[in-house]
Amino acid sequence: MPSHPTAAPSDTGPRPTSIHFHPVCKDDQPFSPRQLRPDEAYLVPDFDQAEVLIAQGINSARVAVSAHGTEYSQMAGELQLVPTSPFTFDESIVVILPTYNERANLEALVTAIGRYLVTDILIVDDNSPDGTGDLADQLSTGSPHIHVLHRSKKEGLGPAYIAGFQWALQRPYDRIIEMDCDFSHAPWDLPRLVHRSHTADLVIGSRYVPGGGTENWNARRRLVSQCGNRYVSLFLGAIIRDWTGGFRCYRRGLLEEMALSTVQAKGYIFQVELAWRAVQLGATVSELPIRFSDRVLGQSKLGWSSIIEGLMEVPKMCCRGSARL
Does a structural domain hold residue 9? Predict the structure, then answer.
């Protein structure tokens, strides 16, 4: 089905402020990033040039892509630029949002997604006790491009995504995107993911490639993430820098090859299992630098059960993969 912009409520917040753009062309070599004022941003002709800047440490929120004469605005007090209309791609796209007690974030995120990308949205709710599912139904009623998949109980991130993938594969979507519902993944990075998917079967928003990073993380969270990725690399190799990253864009054909019904992981190690399956299938995997920001509202779903599952399952994946070679 074709994708369309999601419906967004009218803005009643701060009004747009003026922006001073610094044009950067492909022949501007060498390029030395400068410290930008709050009212300054870089203007580039295409996504490829945007990636050159972002890999050098420029925040993607301050890079405007002028494809097709796209114009931008900026709300007072906000960092990110907002295009006057969302980016449109030839591919039919769906963003899958797994939710459990995300009522405080859901409507704002759905609205933000619609500002940056022409896409459908599938909300997969695990019977949230805070009423997230009811809110999702209300949002769906207001837009034919917002869909809801209700699950009877919370079973973990993996089963929620598998259900979402299976729903999407029953419909003619070309690109299927994973995204957290807590604003840890920046909505303005969605067009970057889709653009990179033109040359890759799986695009991973990566914290651990040049230009990527984390924001507002405490020492424990940083340590768990870094050690987790190193542990996975010990068994599966360093072919992927951010094995556990959950901001991803899959080509339809790759998911169709993955035998999703046999995926075993339930917690965050699910991301590792799917990335490893992609590698085993010979898929082209590309990592795109992102800045991962800790959630502001709600509670993190990362617990000891997920960590223990990862410690046990990664060696098994290695053995299963080796057996295929």
Answer: no
1 occurs within a structural domain: no
Give the position of tokens 């890079």.
Answer: 63
Asked if 68 and 200 sit in the same domain, the reply is no
Kindly state whether residues 175 and 47 are assigned to the same domain.
Answer: no
- Written as one string, the DSSP assignment of 246-294 is --EEEEHHHHHHS-GGG----STHHHHHHHHHHHHTT--EEEEE-EEE-
pLDDT at 15: 58
Pair (155, 289) in one structural domain: yes
pLDDT in tens, 101-146: 999 999 999 999 999 999 999 999 999 999 999 999 999 999 999 9
**Which residue, 291, 294, 293, 268, is CA-closest to 207?**
291
Q: How far is CA 147 from CA 135, 156, 286, in A?
A: 12, 20, 28
Number of domains comprising the chain: 2
Pair 122, 249 in one domain: yes
Burial class (CB in 10 A: 0-12, 13-18, 19+), 302: middle
Tallying the residues shown for the chain, one arrives at: 325
> Do the beta carbons of residue 164 and residue 96 sit within 8 Å?
yes
pLDDT tens readout for residues 197-240: 999 999 999 999 999 999 888 887 788 788 889 999 999 999 99
Please tell me whether residues 75 and 102 are part of one structural domain.
Answer: no
Task: State CA 121 to chain mean position distance.
Answer: 13
Given a cut of 70, whether residue 174 has pLDDT beyond it is yes
Range(s) of the domain holding residue 219? 93-324
Q: Is the pLDDT of residue 14 over 90?
A: no
Is residue 6 in a domain? no
The pLDDT of residue 5 is above 90: no
pLDDT for 182 equals 92
Match 């800790």 to its residue by tokens: 294
The CB-side HSE value for 150 (13 A sphere, CA atoms) comes to 12
Question: Token match 């917002």: residue?
Answer: 146
Q: Answer yes or no: do 139 and 73 share one domain.
A: no
Question: Do 66 and 197 fall into the same domain?
Answer: no
Specify the CATH number for the domain of residue 133: 3.90.550.10
